[in-house]
Amino acid sequence: MSALLLLGAPLVSCHDSDDKPTQRKLLSVSVLPIQAPIALGTDAQFTATGTYSDATTEDLTSLVTWSSSDMAVATVSNAPGSNGLATSVAVGVTTIDALDFDSGISGSTTLTITSAVLVSIAVTPTNPSIALGTTQPFTAMGTYSDATTQDLTSSVTWSSFDTFVAIVSNAPGSNGLATSVAVGVTTIDALDFASGISGSTTLTVTSAVLVSIAVTPTNPSIALGTSQPFTAMGTYSDSTTQDLTTSVTWSSSDTFVA
To answer: CA-to-CA distance for 125 and 145, rounded, in angstroms?
Structure first.
């Protein structure tokens, strides 16, 4: 009995086709936020998320190519560090798209640009000081999301924090006119009810100041060698009066006459 030994024959390993490694494939790209409305003059940041065949997801925001269907309404950035950042251009609607070039798969969402919105109110003048008995007109200037400005003096609601110091008018024709009441400090506020945005400044009311002096009697006539007493009556910003005869400095325009 003999045996045949084959030397040097290669060993063959067979693999079932089901054992081949599965390739990970991109299935879809989702763009968020969905149908985001923004005001003219503002930006919106979009993100792109890829879903793969192995049920995993990946942030593709910096890898996809972004585009806007209407660049007259909004543009979208592909610059490193600002990928997916949409900038409003005009009121309207555009589609924001994120494309993965390798697979040809893309995702999109709708971006709506609305009219500019009020973002701040500036009340001027800033921190004025007035004498008791006087008034101070204020102006409210609104700044919008598109960087435009508008005078809101007649449309805002004015208020004074301390009405014992000063009051402020909301009457047509005198909107924003503050009237002093007593010496002190108060805050003057201008509120836009629709947006809830307001602006304010501080008003200081000081003691009344002298505004005029009346010398009496008026235009008298006297004989040579006689004398004429005069009185100086001061009127102040709060409408009060005071006899200043002994505190003012008197003079004559022609000392050769009197």
So the answer is: 23
Are the CB atoms for 116 and 145 separated by under 8 Å? yes
Query: 57-60: long-range contacts at Cβ-Cβ below 8 A with a sequence spacing of 24 or more?
Result: 60/29, 60/98, 60/100
Name the residue type at position 76: V
Is 90 exceeded by the pLDDT of residue 13? no
Pairing of strands 105-114, 139-144: unpaired
> Between the CA of residue 179 and those of 109, 141, 236, what are the distances in Å?
54, 20, 15
Q: What is the pLDDT of residue 229?
A: 94
Write down the H helix ranges in 180-246.
none
pTM equals 0.75
pLDDT band at 113; cut points 50, 70, 90: very high
DSSP 127: S
How far CA 62 is from CA of 59, 81, 111, in Å, comes to 8, 8, 19
Which region, left, alpha or beta, applies to residue 117 given φ > 0 means left and ψ of -120 to 50 means alpha?
beta
